[in-house]
TrEMBL record:
Residues noted as binding Ca(2+) in the record, renumbered to the chain: 25, 27, 67, 182, 186, 224, 226-227
Alphabetically ordered keywords of this record: Annexin, Calcium, Calcium/phospholipid-binding, Metal-binding, Repeat
GO cellular component: cytoplasm; plasma membrane
Keyword flag Nucleus: no
Name recorded for this polypeptide: Annexin
Gene Ontology BP term (one): response to water deprivation
Length: 244
């Protein structure tokens, strides 16, 4: 179930205007941006982007990138993307680095229906002019050959085990991803943002319950203690606990 507390009486043109006004003048009113976008579901945000383009002849994400920064910027841009566009962007992000993030790829592949995955692949191809399967294969063939020869560094088998867990019980899998992102010194903000953003409208309530059962602390408390400023406020808003 969703954790997003979405407004039922919002106007996309009014929302677009509020965001534009928050970006005018010296400084940016981040709280006003969070108040709007943190309380809108994906369908409402799609309409806001369309209204923003119509009113100001500018893409909303481009505007946000010119005003915000850091982990807050990355999280809110992921949230504003259409879910299929977001998955395509995350897949490209996972493959473009020197060391591909195979677990991120499996999260996308293993949690989508065949129809949803086909849409993601089409979007990926439309944006990058290459097939997602080809890009994945170009990064994984060497790993598979090494594994078959028995000289793998176990990364391949780790990913296979993770994919089985993700398929079998995705909510439990994501609760563990969040635990790993927060535990110890330092925080994996990319993983923290990704799970909260991508699961907020799907099953984040169950993930929150499983996180508490595993760690004896709420996800809201753990996220609040490991993040700060507007980034923390935005994540807590998506978690349905902005007043935490």
């Amino acid at each position: 179930m969703t954790t997003v507390v979405a407004s039922e009486s919002s106007s996309p043109f009014d929302d677009a205007q509020v965001i534009k006004e928050a970006c005018l003048g010296l400084g940016t009113d981040e709280k006003a941006i969070i108040q709007v976008l943190g309380h809108r579901n994906s369908n409402q945000i799609k309409l806001i982007r369309q209204a923003y383009q119509e009113l100001y002849q500018e893409d909303l994400i481009h505007q946000l990138k010119s005003e915000l920064s850091g982990d807050f910027l990355k999280a809110i841009c992921l949230w504003v993307m259409d879910p299929t566009e977001r998955d395509a962007a995350l897949a490209h992000q996972a493959l473009e680095k020197g060391k591909p993030n195979y677990k991120l790829i499996l999260e996308i592949v293993c949690t989508k229906s065949p129809e949803e995955l086909l849409t993601v692949k089409r979007t990926y191809h439309s944006i990058h002019k290459r097939a997602l399967e080809e890009d994945i294969a170009s990064h994984t063939n060497g790993k598979i050959r090494k594994a078959l020869r028995g000289d793998s560094d176990n990364e391949f088998f780790t990913v296979v085990r993770a994919s089985i867990r993700c398929i079998k019980y995705p909510q439990k899998y994501f609760a563990k991803v969040l635990h790993n992102a927060i535990k110890g010194l330092g925080t994996d903000e990319d993983a923290l943002s990704r799970v909260i953003v991508t699961r907020a409208e799907i099953d984040l309530k169950e993930i929150k319950n499983l996180y508490f059962d595993r760690n004896n602390v709420s996800l809201e408390q753990a996220a609040a203690e490991d993040t700060s400023s507007d980034y923390r406020t935005f994540l807590l808003t998506l978690l349905g606990s902005e007043g935490y």
